[in-house]
Design brief:
CATH architecture of chain A: 3-Layer(aba) Sandwich
Protein name (chain B): Electron transfer flavoprotein subunit alpha/FixB family protein
CATH architecture of the largest domain in chain B: 3-Layer(aba) Sandwich
Helix content of chain B: 25-40%
InterPro entries (chain B): DHS-like_NAD/FAD-binding_dom, ETF_a/b_N, ETF_a/FixB, ETF_asu_C, Rossmann-like_a/b/a_fold
Keywords (chain B): Electron transport, Transport
Shape of chain A: globular
Structural class of chain A: alpha/beta
Distance between the termini of chain A: 54 Å
Helix content of chain A: 25-40%
Strand content of chain B: 25-35%
Largest sheet of chain B: 7 strands, parallel
Distance between the termini of chain B: 53 Å
Pfam families (chain B): ETF (PF01012), ETF_alpha (PF00766)
Organism (chain B): Pedobacter rhodius
Oligomer: heterodimer
CATH class of chain A: Alpha Beta
Number of helices of chain A: 6
Largest sheet of chain A: 9 strands, mixed
Strand content of chain A: 25-35%
Number of domains of chain B: 2
Order of helices and strands of chain B: EEEHEHEHEHEEEEEEEEHEHEHEEH
Number of strands of chain B: 18
CATH topology of chain A: Rossmann fold
């Protein structure tokens, strides 16, 4: 079994998000980068499914050389090899095209991504790659079992879940529940240095989006504190002032 | 040129978020001085389809074929894209729901269209530029995204625009779709819906609790408060990590991002990752015994006090308020 896991290089979750250049660029100064937490879940499940010689896990990232430490982290967690498509990741459409282009003749049984990257929050890549490759895509999955021929998947829906099966190649985006994120051990960290990391060129594709500007949420006014013994006053405020109940 | 909105049905009914997407799509159609067409896939009665006219759809394409009774995103995307082509719709609007998130990217590739998902406002159209404000960095920022392609797809966040009535004469047409066998690769085996619960992403009111509750056995009062308000329940990451509550209730940067009208946070300190997922709530109430809890800095109303004393009193006050 061959599994491809798509990983994104994102700012650490504790990052305070600021922008430069008249709010047109994300301020990367002092930012720590990590493997996107949802992609770590996808990677961890891929490793579980292939453990014991049952298959191999390749990770792919679209980005520039600065992403290599994040890719090595994925190798340390347990991927067998890695590919970096050498280009700035313009948007999900561009990234998906690159992943599809790489994967189209490699015969991966399963392709996994995280449910979304925590920077652009798109949840676009899995379904776009699925469309470029003309294979089924299942978004925001909570559980993934694979018996070698058929995958049984739980997908989140509003107020519940849906159980689907898929036979043949597919791509899915993983949310919490699919696997516990694995933490690299010392042997993993040592071996990650020598595992193969191939660099391939990007293919061109039409531009469909670009970010014109960023905004940060407007600050709220000062909090209005209500004494703990006056809960009815809080209800009054929510009813008459905020008008939400 | 026209606008097409996909109206997602669940068991033959449309939810509020669908009427919101229709209201939003109608406003875009008005911006463009064109008409709004809706497309529905699955078994929906004519009476329910006619409801879409209330919010501004002048035509509804009804796709009712056996193979598409239940959601298969590959096949649904093909049908919606072919409807967009037939209707010469250059803008397609969907709800940014779980299914919408699976569909919109596939339609975008089919139509070579730019996709703005998590849209929170009407597009700004200025001198040929088409800009959509969408959430980014898990609620810590917004990205003003330009859709530079001729075709455009927008997935609207729930509770971002509101439902706006706009009574329009609506015509219902059957839309025949050729379904390719290769588009039916996924097979639904089971659908489990907790019908007594309010779905968190759509909820207008949310009651959320954190580690301050000390253990899963203390959630009774949270559920009682939520029940009285008609609110959904949510929790912080440490709570779902400890399996006190299901992952589907975890809101925050690595959980789900929500934007209800009212978010009540009980015993949650307000770590930056949690705030990211809830900061676009319209009104935030924080109940915490620590006056220094960072959550108070982003709250509209607060009570400094022990949750075990404040919440029961709040429940009593709410009962009295409701009479």
């Amino acid at each position: 079994m061959k599994i491809l896991v798509c990983i994104s290089n994102v700012p650490d979750t504790t990052t305070k998000i600021t922008f430069t250049n008249d709010n047109t660029e994300f301020n990367t100064a002092g930012v720590q980068y990590i493997v996107n937490p949802y992609d770590e879940i996808a990677l961890s499940r891929a490793i579980e499914l292939t453990e014991g010689g049952k298959g191999t896990v390749t990770v792919i990232n679209v980005g520039e050389a600065g992403n290599d430490p994040t890719i090595r982290k994925a190798l340390a967690i347990g991927a067998d090899d890695a590919v970096r498509v050498n280009a700035a990741p313009r948007d999900a459409y561009f990234v998906s095209k690159q992943i599809a282009e790489y994967a189209k003749d490699k015969d991966f049984d399963i392709i996994l991504t995280g449910r979304e990257s925590i920077d652009y929050n798109g949840n676009q890549v899995a379904a776009m790659v699925g469309e470029f490759l003309d294979i089924p895509s299942i978004s925001i999955i909570k559980k993934l079992d694979f018996d070698g021929a058929t995958a049984t998947i739980e997908r989140e829906i509003e107020g519940g879940k849906e159980v689907v099966t898929v036979s043949g190649k597919f791509i899915a985006s993983c949310a919490e529940g699919v696997a516990e994120p694995k933490i690299p051990n010392m042997r993993g960290i040592m071996s990650a240095r020598t595992k193969p990391l191939a660099v391939v060129d990007a293919v061109s594709i039409e531009e469909v989006t670009k970010v014109a500007k960023y905004e940060t949420p407007a600050p709220r006014g000062a909090v209005k504190l209500v004494p703990a013994e006056e809960t009815e006053e809080l209800i009054n405020l929510l009813h008459s002032e905020a008008k939400v109940i | 040129m026209s606008v097409l909105v996909y109206v997602e049905q669940a068991e033959g009914k449309f939810k509020k978020s669908v009427f919101e997407a229709v209201s939003y799509a109608k406003a875009i159609a008005d911006q463009q001085s064109t008409n709004l067409t809706a497309i529905s896939i699955g078994d929906v009665a004519d009476g329910e389809l006619k409801e879409l006219g209330k919010y501004g759809a002048s035509k509804v394409l009804n796709v009712s074929v056996d193979q598409l009774k239940t959601f298969v995103n590959q096949a649904y995307a093909s049908v919606i894209a072919s409807a967009a082509e037939k209707e010469s719709a250059d803008i397609v609007v969907l709800s940014n729901s779980f299914s919408g998130k699976g569909l919109a990217p596939r339609i975008a590739v089919k139509l070579k269209a730019g996709l703005a998902d998590g849209a929170v406002e009407l597009p700004k159209i200025d001198g040929g530029k088409f800009e959509v404000k969408k959430t980014a960095f898990s609620g810590k920022a917004f990205a003003i995204t330009q859709l530079t392609s001729p075709n455009k797809i927008i997935a609207l966040n729930p509770n971002a625009f509101g439902v706006k009535e706009n009574a329009t004469d609506v015509a219902i047409e059957n839309f025949s779709a050729d379904v390719k066998q290769s588009d039916l690769g996924t097979v639904i085996k089971d659908i489990v819906r907790a019908t007594d619960k309010i779905s968190l992403p759509d909820a207008e009111l949310v009651v959320s609790a954190g580690r301050g509750l000390k253990g899963p056995e203390n959630w009774g009062m949270i559920e009682e408060l939520a029940g009285l308000l008609g609110a959904a329940t949510a929790c912080s990451k440490p709570v779902s990590d400890a399996d006190w509550r299901p992952h589907s209730e975890h809101v925050g940067q690595t959980g789900i991002a929500i934007s209800p009208n009212l978010y009540i946070a009980i015993g949650i300190s307000g770590a930056i990752q949690h705030l990211a997922g809830v900061s676009s709530s319209k009104v935030i109430v924080v109940i915490n015994k620590d006056p220094e809890a960072p959550f108070f800095k982003v709250a509209d109303y607060g009570i400094v006090g022990d949750a075990f004393e404040v919440v029961p009193k709040l429940i009593e006050a709410l009962k009295a308020h409701k009479g």
